[in-house]
User: Fold this.
Amino acid sequence: MTPEEVIDEIKRSGLRGRGGGGFPTGLKWELTRKVKAEQKYVVCNADEGDPGAFMDRSILEGDPHTVLEAMAINGYCTEASKGLIYIRAEYPLAIERLKIAIDQAREYGLLGDDIFGTGFSFDIELRYGAGAFVCGEETALIHSMEGLRGEPTVKPPFPSESGYKGAPTNVNNVETYASVPVILLKGADWFSSIGTEKSKGTKVFALAGKVNNVGLVEVPMGTTLREVIFDIGGGIKGGKKFKAVQTGGPSGGCLTEKHLDIPIDYDNLIASGSMMGSGGMIVMDEDDCMVSVAKFYLDFTVEESCGKCAPCRIGNKRLYEMLDTITQGKGTVEDLSKLRNLANVIKDTSLCGLGQTSPNPVLSTMDNFYDEYLAHVKDHKCPSGQCKALMSYIIKEDACVGCTLCARVCPVDAISGEKKMPHVIDQSICIKCGACFEKCKFDAIFIE
Amino acid sequence: MDIVKLTIDNTPVVVEKGTTVLEAAKTVGVDIPTLCYMKLDDMEFENKPGGCRVCVVEVEGRRNLAPSCKTECEDGMVVNTHSVRVVNARRTVMELILSDHPFECLVCAKSGKCDLQSLAQDLGIREIHYQGEKSHYKSDHSPAIIREMDKCIMCRRCETACNDVQTVGTLSAIYRGFNSVVAPAFEMDLDHTNCTFCGQCVAVCPTGALIERDHTWKVMDAIIDPKKTVIVQTAPAVRAALGEEFGLEPGTLVTGKMVSALRKIGFDYVFDTDFAADLTILEEGTELLGRLSKFLAGDKEVKLPILTSCCPAWVNFFEHHFPEMKEIPSTAKSPQQMFGAIAKTYFADQLKIKREDLVVVSVMPCLAKKYEASRDEFAVNGDPDVNISITTRELAQMIKNANLKFTELPDDDFDRPMGESTGAGVIFGTTGGVIEAAVRTAYELHTGKELDRVDFKELRGMEGIRSATLDFDGLPINIGIAHGLGNARKLLEDIKAGKSQFHAIEIMACPGGCIGGGGQPYHHGDVTVLKKRQKAIYEEDAGKTIRKSHENPYIKKLYEEFLGEPCGHKSHELLHTSYFDKKKKIEI
Assistant:
């Protein structure tokens, strides 16, 4: 096959980038091919950073050869003679296996100069990342590989024009690469027969959270969330009620009951206010407080922001602080509109994909669970009972026998009462540690 | 030329391909606010990380707002620079930046000259809706530069100046996210790093995060001390910029008013560094001719090209980055230090006072001069030749403290003997000036003939690296000029590789030379300010009766009465120095 034929095959297969953006892979390769340059690079983005996600790691540990093969094919198509795999140093096993696979490929003449006498030369090297989430963004990844600070630059220019060391560079995710050899083996028609109209093939998700079966699941595009969570995932743990599912990792959004029957593909997820991302899928049940969920994700993005642009650097910090204030019961209704404005501005003005998506958990939980936000700021109550500051432990007068056990375990002496008389918790002293609740043998303490 | 047509705020715009939306908007009278952006045409300084997001605009068809400083115009583009969406975003981002900034404006050294402050005013920010934790970093008080990084807004201008323009590489962003800040590696203090104290980071900092160390009160303490005789020297570039601090047009020469002001402030003698610049020329020019004649006589050991040594940041640069070449620069001290050395000997003797009772103050366009004055080798028994060095900005502050109406002051003249100078001494203040001054003297000393023209226009200009071949009566002399340490590095690499054809090279650390020094009034990214200062310097030169250093009558007298001959024994003792390998001094 000529390079053009390969690119055509990939294009016809409908393969889209599995790293999150969903850009058509064949088109991306074609763009790099068209740029004329002495030296071009092919890069594998193995900087998997979503909390709880390990799709790429499983591929790299299980079948590194497939990625090497795909990178060589990419090099063949884009006229790049050098491949680089940017992998986080926290994946030692994947690194070890990649090294073995690269050595084997060189030994078999699958990598190196003049491969099988075709005149095509291609070799692959590893580059290690320190595990910064933002280095999954391709320009940041390239800077990190160059030994510079791992922070993004404004696109354009796109890496396909000016990337690693200023040369045209084609960056693809591990899972995208893993789909390439099979497309060429079985044909574009086979691949495109799987999936929805605009999203072809299969996708691996890291199913986690409150489901019975957690782990990696590979499903055809178009499978519904309900099938993934209830059929494959075996439903919600402990028979609790499903509340939401966060797709797309920390940059994604929280989807609810009403989204369960939507076929999963790139466009449907975006239309629902979330995204595919690299395939994180965290399920939440009725016990989860959605304000706290948003806060959890913001905590992650605040930690992972590179600090280059002001809205992401300072804005996300402020978002987090506002969410924290709300979970402390100190928020106001006005805070909610400020929160939404700030989230929108961060989305609208941030430099790279990290900041442009980091407010998604806030916006989607506000869209889908506004009542919960209102309960926090208006009634100063957390409906799920997760926000400690908003809980009260109260002793039922008629159930308390005055055994004094609670008063004795209370670490801050918040409980008072005479022996054999009903006790009382002083709410201004109580630190909500729950020790009294655990100790009471008469179920006389309840949480409000 | 490829052109593109677009619409900005409903106005059709036609620009060259590659023009940014920010630049295109300017052509139709739309001034999009910026903060981190700074561009100095001709100075190879361009900072547009696209980080502050203040210059965002709405581009039809794009999902997100676009930073106008980084967005190139495209055919058919429809841009809106002030829609509700844009203005809300811009103000919110500004509020965020302010929310992480100390509200110390009333007592901040940058107040009134702060880009952040003026932008907040322009945007009409009256309330910060988003407040929270603020960043805190340790302060760093080096002999020349003070870093108060709580005020850093991560515009990265200093980083661009330090890395791209100066290629010094001291400053870069460290830490991540909310904790990000620009600092030396491992957050070391500047004086433990390879910083040259050129002060270009200070010159471009939009806020009070980077400022000079204030020595004005030290000066006042000396002036009110009855036991001390306090004299002052003023560098050539100061007079071409000081007026800006008092609302005068850039390029207004204020030599006479400056002298008046210094007298009123209470200095006992007001002298001119230009005098010492003339002295430098005699020493450096003689050294050049000495090396040149040895070279022509076939001496293979002689070091050529000779490099000028009057710029202290440049001296720091090669001591840190090219210590293996430390024998190449002229051994002549800088004019500031020559002045100090002569003042504390020759002049102190004239006054019949002990050197310790003479306080030498210098007014410099420079921050590295503060460091230079504090170098151990420039002191005798712990008494520095130059006691205190202040900047043009600090002098302006002292003039304000003395309640002087600067613009209405009468013109006054420098004291003698160390206030007499030639046009050659004046042009030390701009790139190309030192070498032109040297050539005026070296030519006549070498050929024994009088120059028919004093102006060497081929050496002037603003290009980063310039060269010219001058005819020394049949002997072609190749001259190189570099300003900006990045340009200096290029010439040094050539010398190292044996590719340099120059006999003499002038190097100044700051873009534009001393007129663009780190201690000058802030240019706020307007490069025409530097050009006007340069013009003023050449005007002062042209207006001088004597324009060649060796014709300065007081310099002649100095040699007759005290020094003997240029590069003689006494000169070597007082006016020459040696350099150090500082590479090994970097410690963590």
Notes: Residues 310-327 of chain A form the longest helix (18 residues).
